[in-house]
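Why does residue order matter? Because the sequence determines the fold. Keep that principle in mind as you read this record.
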Amino acid sequence: MALVLNEEQQLLKESVKDFLDNKAPVSALRKLRDENISDYDDTLWSEMIEMGLTSLTINEEFGGLEFGYVALGQVLEQTGRNLSVSPMISTVLMSTTFINVLGNVFQKNKYLPEIAKGNIKICLAHQETSHFNIKDINTKLKVDGDSYVLNGEKHFVIDAGISDYIIVLAKFETESNYIGVILRSNSDGIKINISRLLDDRKVGDITFKNVKIEKESVIEINDFKLLERVFDISSIGLSCEMLGVSLEAFDKTLAYLKDRQQFGVTIGTFQALQHRAAKMFIELELCKSVVIKGLKAIDSDLSNLNEIASLAKAKLGRTIKLITNEAIQMHGGIGMTDDIDIGFYIKRARVLQQTLGDYNYHLTRYAEISGY
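Structure:
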């Protein structure tokens, strides 16, 4: 497996970079934060839809481009570099993957074309405690005549406040098998409380109280490995964004080392700082290989995807912490202020580190998969 992009994937990456550099620089995030008008830029999202970015992993029979996860990974890397805010993670990465992997033909025909056209946004509600664990599910579905009733709570739901639909991970009241439920976010019995995270993005805590569910909205999950695959793919996608955040933080730090002067010379000439920068560069090169390996493993349907996914999330989690910490330290006092953008990167890094499992979670999982 060659760990390089083909010509089409490279062209997509360059096109998205040019687009986001022009339309969604870090200043756009600063504006969203300061003006608090919206969770994301509607105009930016519309243009991303027009570029086909919502349909990259959707098969042609459902109105998609069928370009694969390597392509989506390049988009997520660039959104990480620019800290661009959009429903890409919630709708295009997590929810589309859930429907692709677990949905039946009816559900795919109903939702995937609408996602591809940008007509709907969907969030995935799975986490119930302060720590990620897909096995820890207490949200219950019980039979109520010809339909079902859903009760439970979900926390830290990405884009809960802007989504038209919610995919809820639950269990039948009398069974241990996992199920997915797709329902409208404005359904009776749903209460959403929105909170702002460290990186100024919003998540929701959702309460489901006697929510009526039609049978056609239920996704039966007969194989736990398929559910794991959804989160493995999502973890690799998040690793792509983490790579983008890390690369841009490193580039900004390198530029600062070449510009900032002390004692009449640029601080980049100090050997101690050169050694620290070299260590960051080496770690980033390793991360590039890990991420592209993960993306190609998805598209190639490799059997050890779970191992590769936890390797990627653990490695990127450790590296993004190193890079953003060093970026703040090398910028000195000004790095702690709001006057420059480097602070936005460490805040986004800390949220990404925790999302879908932190370094310790994935390191432990990788060790277990490997037989330790």
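The radius of gyration is 21 Å.
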